């Protein structure tokens, strides 16, 4: 996972979370020892929780998931078919994108600018488009929702 690193030496085994300086949060570095948390798996789970809570409290939860594409999904919204996107090679505003299939089976996209509509406004519009074309909206996780959609939804 992004920002979580494994450190192993002869006498130390731990995960370290390093949150970027551009994120304003109380604590940027967290260390999670295998011994303290009862093994590798539990230490990693604690590191993930620390990262998610820190980024969410800073309003930067979209940084949790990232890819190295030029145009990349930087945030799992928790809603199937709706994702937050950013173009790292330009100064264009991030946007929320809804995807759906048209009547011919072709994947279609519709995007809404965060600078034009605001974070919640763009997200709600993307959810509305997704709902209009699929007649359903599934929320897999509410941990990363910037706000609740205005259309009816089901928990996946």
What would your notes on this structure say?
This protein has helices at residues 34-37, 40-57, 114-117, 119-134, and strands at 4-8, 13-18, 29-33, 71-76, 82-87, 95-101, 107-113, 138-139, 154-155. The protein is of the alpha+beta class and 156 residues long. A four-stranded antiparallel sheet has the order 4-5-6-7. Strand 5 and strand 6 form a beta hairpin. The longest helix has 18 residues, at 40-57. The radius of gyration is 18 Å and the shape is elongated. The two termini are 23 Å apart.
Give the oligomer, counting copies of the same chain as homo and different chains as hetero: single chain
Profile the largest sheet: 4 strands, antiparallel
Strand order of the largest sheet: 4-5-6-7
Number of domains: 2
Radius of gyration: 18 Å
What proportion of the residues is helical, as a percent range?
Answer: 25-40%
Shape: elongated
Terminal Cα separation, in Å? 23 Å
* pLDDT < 50 runs, ≥5 residues: 66-74
The beta-strand count equals 9
> Which range does the strand content fall in?
25-35%
Structural class: alpha+beta
């Amino acid at each position: 996972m992004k920002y979580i690193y494994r450190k192993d030496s002869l006498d130390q085994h731990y995960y370290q979370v390093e949150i970027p300086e551009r994120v304003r949060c109380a604590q940027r570095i967290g260390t999670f020892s295998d011994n303290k948390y009862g093994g590798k798996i539990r230490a990693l789970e604690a590191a993930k929780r620390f990262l998610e809570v820190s980024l969410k409290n800073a309003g930067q939860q979209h940084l949790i998931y990232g890819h190295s594409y030029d145009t990349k999904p930087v945030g799992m919204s928790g809603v199937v078919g709706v994702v937050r996107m950013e173009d790292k090679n330009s100064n264009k505003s991030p946007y929320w994108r809804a995807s759906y299939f048209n009547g011919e089976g072709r994947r279609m996209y519709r995007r809404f600018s965060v600078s034009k509509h605001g974070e919640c406004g763009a997200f709600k519009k993307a959810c509305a488009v997704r709902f209009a074309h699929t007649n359903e909206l599934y929320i897999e996780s509410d941990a990363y929702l910037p706000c609740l959609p205005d259309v009816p939804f089901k928990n996946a």
